[in-house]
Design goal:
Blueprint: H1 9-22, H2 32-74, E1 89-95, E2 98-113, E3 116-119, E4 125-130, E5 139-140, E6 145-149, H3 152-188, H4 202-228, E7 230-232, E8 237-242, E9 249-250, E10 257-261, E11 264-272, E12 286-292, E13 298-311, E14 317-325, H5 330-335, E15 356-373, E16 382-386, E17 392-396, E18 398-402, E19 406-411, E20 418-420, E21 433-437, E22 440-441, H6 452-462
Parallel strand pairs: 1-21
Antiparallel strand pairs: 1-20, 2-11, 2-15, 3-10, 4-6, 4-9, 5-8, 6-7, 8-10, 11-14, 12-13, 12-15, 13-14, 15-19, 16-17, 16-20, 18-19, 21-22
Helix pairs in contact: 3-4
Length: about 475
């Protein structure tokens, strides 16, 4: 608050005298002290009024400016507004028609040999030699000797058996001569009646024959043991396992290796049980085997479905077996051994045992089904259609087969209906759309493009 100014006593007294002269009938008594208090109050009130006026006046001006501004804005003319035209969503669609669809079931598995033999010696002894091909991965021909066991002991046994046979044969001849002489003596003596078997030495002759048969059997056994010292291949194949080396003693019945035939191979392929009816199990269904071997190009082999092994109890999958002929391309290699191969000729590499492959099994052919893109199928049971009024219709369908690229529908669709192929995350029944079929926009379904400013505003909103 402003401080009151002090009035000099001389000036105050002069004012008192002037006021007394002006009001002689009222101020007749000495009121210098009271007048001084009243004068100070009046001066302070005047100063306070001036201070309040300096504060309140700017506030009043500001409030008046704000109210004037609001009044100006409120009184301006309203701009003309117009509704934004509706814009239709454009979708791609195809016209439905029935067709025949050959089912192709996809599976995978590992290549396994059709025929596998375990090399087990039937005689014991020391391994004296191994074939050069008797290494893991080595190839051999039918009749090749893979393992040779020391045969000297068996040669000795063979010689003894031959000697025993010779002795038994000599004894047999001797007994036969003695029996003939006894018969002749009985005739020369003129005895009547039939001679006994003992007189004719028939027991001795029978014993000699038995000894000769036994010696002959021993000779056959000794010869067989000698032959068994050589382990030979009975087919063209490849060595899959080796567990013996030269100089090692092997006992009878010991596993020393495994060999596989290479004239054919087989692949066990698991197939879902729900596709059991689609398999062609009565005939030899073709199987396409593919694998990537040492490069980007996939090699292809042809096979046939030969048998069905059964259902796996844990996974409930059916196991089918596909057979591939000449997986190691031995016939091709033999045929082209003397031929000139051009630089552009490409042959499949060997299909090795244990290799992982992909398989496509030819199944039955589905008749009168709707084949649609796999992307048009929603939740494995629903598709989107465009009705005659250009609106979306959601419909449930029956899927009989589907893969990564397409799906076959048996029921739920009609010929010449429009199927939406554009992926739509969320859409409701009755949504108006503009259908584009084979690059042609259907008449009556053109989307309203709006004005240029509307399109610019939509572009800005999207950004």
């Amino acid at each position: 608050m402003a401080r009151a100014r002090s009035i000099p006593p001389s000036r105050l007294d002069s004012r008192i005298k002037r006021e007394t002269a002006l009001w002689p009938g009222v101020l007749t008594w000495n009121c210098s002290r009271g007048y001084r208090v009243w004068y100070l109050f009046k001066e302070n009130a005047r100063l306070i009024s001036k201070r309040l006026l300096s504060i309140v006046l700017p506030i009043v001006v500001i409030i008046a400016a704000v109210l004037a501004s609001k009044w100006i804005k409120a009184s301006k003319p309203e701009p003309e507004t117009r509704s934004k035209p509706a814009r239709l969503m454009q979708v791609d669609a195809i016209r439905l028609k029935t067709a025949q669809y050959p089912v192709m079931l996809r599976s995978q598995g590992s290549v396994q040999p059709t025929l596998t033999n375990a090399l087990v010696p039937e005689v014991g002894g020391t391994v004296v030699s191994l074939a050069k091909a008797f290494v893991v991965g080595g190839r051999f021909k039918a009749g090749d000797v893979l393992v040779q066991i020391d045969r000297r002991d068996y040669d000795i046994a063979l010689t003894q058996a031959e000697a025993n046979l010779a002795q038994a044969d000599a004894r047999l001849q001797e007994q036969a001569a003695l029996a003939e002489r006894a018969r002749e003596d009985w005739r020369l003596l003129g005895r009547s009646g039939k001679p006994s078997a003992l007189t004719l030495r028939e027991p001795q002759l029978a014993a000699a024959k038995a000894d000769r048969d036994a010696a002959e059997a021993q000779l056959s056994r000794a010869q067989l043991d000698v032959d068994r010292t050589q382990l030979s291949a009975t087919f063209d194949g490849i060595v899959g396992e080796k567990s013996v080396d030269t100089g090692q003693f092997v006992a009878r019945g010991t596993l020393i290796g495994r060999i596989h035939a290479i004239d054919s191979a087989e692949v066990r392929l698991p197939v879902s049980s729900q596709y059991l009816d689609l398999l062609n199990l009565r005939g030899d269904a073709s199987v396409r085997i593919t694998a990537s071997v040492g490069g980007a190009r996939d090699s292809v082999w042809k096979g046939v479905l030969t048998r069905v092994e059964g259902m796996d109890a844990a996974s409930q999958q059916l196991t089918v077996v596909a057979q591939i002929s000449d997986p190691y391309a031995t016939a091709t290699a033999t045929a082209t051994a003397t031929a000139t191969i051009s630089p552009t000729t490409t042959e499949n590499p060997p299909l090795r045992f244990g290799q992982f492959v992909q398989a496509e099994i030819s199944g039955k052919t589905l008749n009168d089904v709707f084949v649609i893109p796999r992307s048009a199928l929603r939740e494995e049971r629903e598709v989107l259609l465009v009705d005659s009024e250009g609106r979306i219709e959601r419909r449930d369908v029956q899927v009989v087969w589907s893969d990564d690229d397409s799906a076959a529908i048996s029921t739920g669709l009609q010929v010449d209906e429009l199927l939406v192929t554009t992926p739509l995350s969320t859409v409701a029944d009755g949504t108006p759309v503009s259908a584009m079929v084979d690059g042609v926009l259907l008449s009556g379904n053109e989307p309203d493009k709006g004005t240029e400013s509307d399109l610019d505003n939509d572009q800005d909103t999207a950004n």
